[in-house]
Design brief:
Oligomer: single chain
Strand content: over 45%
Distance between the termini: 33 Å
Structural class: mainly beta
Number of helices: 5
Length: 549
C-alpha cells in the first residue's frame, strides 16, 4: 500500500470542521486531570501524560483489558460531560494489543454504551445496553490512527426507534496511548488517503489475480496526456484481472473504516469492470462498475451490486470517477451498511491513476472553464456561425469576457432566427451546478440560449434554458431526436434577452442552475453521470464554471 498523501484542499476542510469542537483531551497541559481508573483489578494500572516527540499524549498502562480507564463518567454520575449539542466524536490512538472503547451516552431508552474494538465486523446489539461496531483488525497495529464516529448514527443503526440525548464519557479497556478526544456538532472530515498516484514509479501493492490467459502485466509509466506517472494494465481485455488492496480479511486489504467515497482516474478505450471489495453488516460485497449504460443492481447471487458508468468513459481520454460507495450499496440494499473498504479489482486493459478514498464527499473547488482574463480557452468549437469566439474587455469585474456572435437566418415566414451554436468541453463527473455571468450588447434584442450536453443514466440528454419560455409561461418540454437522445428545454432563471423592455444591456447577471435538479423535472428517476459540454447560441459571457454548491 502506498504511503498516505494529503490533498491540501480537503485537509483545509478537515481543519475547518474542527473549529467548533469541544476538546476533552489533547494532553498538552501535561497532566491527567479528568482521568480515573474505574477497574483497578488487578491493581497497578496507571494513567500518565507522556511527551512523545513534540506532543503530549495520554498513556494507559495495566493488565490489558482487565483494567478500565475513564474520562468523563457514566450517565447520571458526577463528572459526566452531559454534552447534548455535539454528538460526533473523534480521537487518535496507538494500541499494539486488544482494546475496547466505550462511549457512555444517555438515550431516550436509558444509558447505552457504544462499543468499539479491533474487529472487521460489527456485533451490533449485544444486549444490556451495549452496541458494538468494529474498527478493523488493523486498528491495533502499533501505529497512530485517527477515528471519527457519528454516535447518533451508530446508535440508530441497531436501535432505530431510539434517540441520543447526551454524550457523557470515554472509557477504555487495554493498554495504549490516546490523544485529541473531541466532540463536534458535525462529524469531522478526515483527510483523504491516496492508495495510488504512481509517482513513486513502482507497482508495489498491485498484482494480477487472474492471469488466464497468461501475459497480463501491471506497469508504471509516464502518460503524455496527463503529464504524470500512471498505472498501465495490459492483457486480454476483461479476461484478466488486476488488484490493489485485497479481499476482506486477507493480507494487504485496506481495511478502510471511515472513508466511504472512492475517486479514481481512468483512460480506457475498451470495456472495463471495476470492483470495490467491501465488508458489510451482511457479509462480503463487490460494488461493481462497468461500461454498461444501465444499472443491473443485485447480481451474482446477491454479493455483487452493479452500477453502469456508460460507454463515454471508453473514449481514450482521461476521466475522473467519484462514487459514494455507501450510497451505491444502500440504493439496492437499504438495510445494509459498509464496515470497511478493502481493495479495488479491475478487469480490462487501460490506465488508472489517483485512486483515493475520502471521508464523505467534500465539496470540490469551482472548476473554471472560461474567465477570459488573459486569453480564451482553446477548447471552444463553433458548430454553427461565421465568427469564432472573440475575447473582449472588460469582463464582469474582470479584464475580459468571451463574445459569441449570433448567426441569423431568415425563415420561410419572413422571421429571423439565431442559429448560432458554440460548444466548450467540460467532461465533469463530480460537479453539476452550472454558473455563467451574462452581459448584454444591445444589438437587435438578441435571443440567446444557454445549455449543457450531459450523459445520464438513461443516455444522452441536452438541457437548454431559454428566456422566451419564461416570457410565454411555457412549461419544460422534451424533444426526442433521431439518434434516440433527448433535448430538454426549460424556462431560464435569468433574462437572456437584452434591451427593448427586457434586461438592461449594460447589466451583468449571474445564471446559476442545478443541472441534475432540472433533468429530474422531466425525468424524476434519472441522474446526471457527467456534464460533457457547455452550449451557447451567443452573448457576452464570463466566468463559465461548474460548482459543487
Amino acid at each position: 500500500m502506498k504511503s498516505t498523501k494529503i490533498l491540501s484542499f480537503l485537509c483545509a476542510c478537515a481543519i475547518f470542521s474542527n473549529l467548533h469542537a469541544t476538546v476533552y483531551e489533547d494532553a498538552e497541559d501535561g497532566n491527567t486531570v479528568g482521568w480515573s481508573i474505574y477497574d483497578n483489578n488487578p491493581a497497578g494500572a496507571i494513567v500518565s501524560n507522556l511527551l512523545e516527540g513534540a506532543n503530549h499524549v495520554i498513556t494507559l498502562q495495566g493488565d490489558g483489558r482487565r483494567n478500565g480507564y475513564i474520562l468523563g463518567n457514566f450517565t447520571g454520575r458526577e463528572g459526566a460531560w452531559n454534552n447534548r449539542d455535539e454528538k460526533n466524536i473523534a480521537w487518535k490512538m496507538n494500541f499494539a494489543e486488544d482494546y475496547t472503547i466505550y462511549i457512555s451516552v444517555n438515550t431516550t431508552k436509558g444509558a447505552r454504551y457504544l462499543r468499539y474494538s479491533a474487529r472487521d465486523t460489527d456485533l451490533g446489539d449485544m444486549g444490556n445496553g451495549y452496541i458494538h461496531h468494529g474498527l478493523g483488525s488493523k486498528s491495533n497495529d502499533g501505529t497512530w490512527q485517527s477515528f471519527s464516529r457519528d454516535l447518533e448514527a451508530d446508535l440508530l443503526q441497531y436501535e432505530p426507534d431510539n434517540s441520543l440525548i447526551a454524550v457523557n464519557g470515554f472509557l477504555v479497556r487495554g493498554s495504549g496511548k490516546i490523544d485529541d478526544i473531541t466532540l463536534t456538532p458535525n462529524r469531522p472530515i478526515l483527510d483523504p488517503v491516496v492508495y495510488e498516484d504512481a509517482e513513486d514509479a513502482d507497482t508495489v501493492g498491485w498484482s494480477v489475480y487472474d492471469n488466464t490467459p497468461a501475459g497480463a502485466a501491471v506497469a508504471n509509466e509516464l502518460d503524455v496526456d496527463s503529464n504524470s506517472r500512471v498505472i498501465s494494465l495490459s492483457g486480454s481485455g476483461r479476461q484478466n484481472g488486476y488488484k490493489i488492496g485485497n479481499w476482506s480479511g486477507q493480507a494487504g486489504a485496506w481495511a478502510e473504516l471511515n472513508r466511504k467515497t472512492a475517486s479514481w482516474d481512468i483512460k480506457y478505450s475498451e470495456p472495463y469492470s471495476f470492483y470495490f471489495t467491501v465488508s458489510t453488516t451482511k457479509g462480503e460485497r463487490y460494488l461493481y462498475y462497468s461500461s454498461a449504460s444501465n444499472n443491473r443492481g443485485i447480481i451474482g447471487g446477491g454479493t455483487y451490486i452493479h452500477h453502469g458508468l456508460g460507454e463515454t468513459f471508453m473514449d481514450g481520454k482521461w476521466h475522473t470517477i467519484t462514487r459514494n460507495l455507501e450510497d451505491d450499496l444502500k440504493e439496492f440494499e437499504p438495510d445494509n451498511h459498509i464496515i470497511a473498504v478493502n481493495g479495488l479489482l479491475i478487469r480490462g486493459s487501460g490506465k488508472v491513476d489517483n485512486i483515493t478514498m475520502t471521508d464523505g464527499a467534500p465539496l470540490l473547488p469551482d472548476t473554471m472553464y472560461e474567465d477570459a482574463e488573459v486569453a480564451l480557452s482553446n477548447g471552444w468549437v463553433t458548430i454553427v456561425g461565421n465568427t469564432p469566439p472573440q475575447r473582449n474587455t472588460p469582463g464582469f469585474n474582470s479584464s475580459g469576457f468571451v463574445k459569441l456572435q449570433p448567426h441569423w437566418q431568415r425563415l420561410e415566414n419572413g422571421n429571423w432566427v439565431n442559429k448560432a451554436e458554440y460548444h466548450l468541453p467540460m467532461n465533469n463527473t463530480s460537479q453539476k451546478i452550472l454558473s455563467v455571468d451574462i452581459g448584454g450588447d444591445g444589438n437587435n434584442m438578441p435571443h440567446y440560449v444557454l445549455g449543457v450536453k450531459t450523459r445520464t443514466k438513461k443516455g444522452i440528454r441536452t438541457l437548454l434554458w431559454d428566456s422566451w419560455y419564461t416570457h410565454e409561461g411555457m412549461s419544460p418540454k422534451t424533444v426526442v431526436l433521431a439518434d434516440g437522445s433527448k433535448r430538454m428545454i426549460f424556462p431560464s432563471p435569468v433574462e437572456q434577452v437584452r434591451g427593448f423592455g427586457y434586461a438592461d444591456v449594460n447589466l451583468w447577471e449571474n445564471f446559476t442552475i442545478n443541472v441534475e435538479n432540472q433533468l429530474q423535472i422531466l425525468e424524476p428517476d434519472n441522474v446526471v453521470l457527467e456534464v460533457e459540454t457547455f452550449i451557447a447560441t451567443g452573448g457576452n459571457l464570463d466566468n463559465i464554471k461548474l460548482k459543487s454548491k
